[in-house]
Design a protein that fits this description.
It is a single chain. The protein contains two helices and 31 strands. The chain is mainly β. The chain folds into two domains: 3-223, no CATH class; 260-277 and 294-465, Jelly Rolls (Sandwich). Strands 17, 18, 20, 21, 22, 23, 27, 30 and 31 form a nine-stranded antiparallel β-sheet that branches. A hairpin with a 2-residue loop joins strand 25 and strand 26. Residues 1-28 form the signal peptide.
């Protein structure tokens, strides 16, 4: 178990500090995370292990390495999402440590996150900066939801900043061209990232992380949510986690159909002239780096329908229920999870649908009419949906892609997702291209651990609306 203790504080935010061990150590020195109040100060030693967004979440505090991938790309990003929960993020370069099952991560330096840092306040569009040699803070501005660090082979890094807060998008584009930066020496350093909320999603894109609290919650897991299936085995054991899924409110059912005009159209499964249309884009067009010409895209609302079944209920080793959608040039799309065919679409309950409006920057989950934010449309090229192996209505969604890794995640509930047979209808805007990938691998194809997809997807059937 990790060693350490939390202390209460009236100060705002999350700060890392070290203090002398009290004479009478409470609970033998083992961590006791408060469940009814924010964490304010932490110190001590922590047993940490590597994780990724597939198997855990960073939450309040996590350690991220500067890796070879960052040096080769000469840039890395620290993403924050969603705006609702991310009010303060501290990125603190600290002395790199060695830690494993025999060596703990140690908070050996007093106020180690107050010596050198980037303090990012997304709502205020402000960054507060300090280097080791500085005696005063420097205030700059930043408008995006991710911090951008340029870095060279000597690990000299420059954070992109703005000298003033632009009032319009055109002003932002203009000041961005000037290329203001603030330098950090990251040689022999790693990044300790702290957040104000366990629901604030932090991601140093393309890298793994070391969550401070993952092992700390396992002494008494009954006090913590057990909703997350990391896919390590087909069992009825979930991973206890301090991360709270922002499940959408079900107090007011989903009642407003933003795609109501489709019910006034005629759905048909007939051929288009003499053509037999395929669900998938032209073979090889993505792999070959080519984009499909606009005049070759289908200019009506189209549907790709899949029969999904679970032929077996006993699995050995890693097992998931999952599928990935690769999205290209898409204004909107709707997912309809149902036992019915498209001929019954006009009677489709909204509680069985998930609606994505990429250009407008939001999606509507099955639980309510609340719009949940999506980031920039250029990032929304991949969506992965995963459901736990045992009975659960919670769908875990990873989306966005940079450098071959997911950026964001969210969760929503959908009824009957655990049925052994259902139909998945992907309803797409005119010109929208979406391809299905149901391979059971992790986000990239480089994982050494093979896994099984418990869902079997039938051949896609193409239909459309007139």
């Amino acid at each position: 178990m990790p060693r350490g203790r939390f202390f209460k504080s009236d100060s705002i935010g999350l700060f890392l500090a070290v203090a002398a061990a009290p004479a009478n150590i409470v609970n033998g020195g083992d961590i006791e995370i408060p469940t009814d109040e924010p964490v304010s100060i932490l110190h001590g030693e922590y047993q940490i292990e590597t994780s990724n967004l597939e198997s855990y979440r960073p939450t309040w505090a996590s350690v991220w390495k500067i890796n070879q991938h960052d040096l080769e790309n000469r840039i890395f990003y620290v993403s924050t999402w969603p705006p609702k929960y991310c009010h303060a993020i501290y990125v603190c370069p600290i002395t790199e440590q060695s830690y494993n099952q025999a060596l703990n991560f140690k908070t050996t330096e007093e106020d180690m996150c107050e010596k050198e840092y980037v303090k990012f306040y997304p709502h205020a569009k402000k960054v507060v900066l300090k280097k080791l040699e500085d005696t005063e803070e420097t205030e700059k501005f930043w408008m995006k939801n991710r911090l951008e660090f340029e870095i060279d082979n000597n690990r000299q890094s420059k954070l992109r900043v703005l000298e003033a807060e632009p009032e319009t998008h055109s002003e932002f584009m203009e000041v961005s061209k000037k290329g203001s930066t603030f330098g950090f020496d990251l040689k022999g350093k790693e990044l300790l990232i702290l957040t104000n909320s366990r629901m604030c999603q932090i991601n140093k894109i393309g890298g793994e992380f070391y969550p401070i609290f993952r092992e700390g919650v396992k002494k008494n897991p009954d006090n913590y949510p057990k909703w997350f299936d990391d896919g390590s085995a087909w069992s009825k054991i979930f991973t206890p986690t301090d991360y709270l899924p922002p499940v959408k409110s079900g107090q007011t059912p989903k009642s407003i159909d933003l795609l109501a005009y489709l019910k006034d159209k005629t759905w048909t499964d007939k051929k288009i002239g003499n053509l037999v249309k395929s669900c998938e884009p032209v073979v090889g067009w993505r792999a070959g780096g080519r984009r499909k010409p606009a005049n070759a895209m289908f200019q009506k609302v189209s549907v790709g329908s899949y029969t999904v079944n679970m032929p077996n209920n006993q699995w050995a080793g890693k097992a998931f229920k999952r599928f990935t959608l690769n999205v290209e040039k898409c204004h909107w799309f709707r997912l309809w999870f149902t036992e019915k065919g498209m001929e019954d679409y006009k009677s489709a309950p909204l509680s069985e649908t998930v609606d994505f409006f990429l250009n407008e920057g939001f999606y509507i989950s099955p639980e309510s009419d609340e719009a949940h934010p999506l980031p920039g449309v250029n990032e929304l090229t991949k969506f992965t949906f995963r459901v736990a192996g045992i009975d659960s209505t919670l769908v875990d969604m990873l989306y966005g892609e940079t450098q071959g890794s997911p950026i964001y995640h969210d969760q929503f509930n959908i009824k009957d997702i655990q049925k052994t047979f259902f139909q998945l209808h992907i309803i797409k805007a005119p010109g929208c291209e979406i391809s299905m990938d149901s391979r059971p691998l992790l986000w990239t194809d480089h994982s050494t651990g093979r896994s099984v997809n418990m869902w079997n997807f039938g051949t896609c059937k193409f239909t459309h609306f007139e």
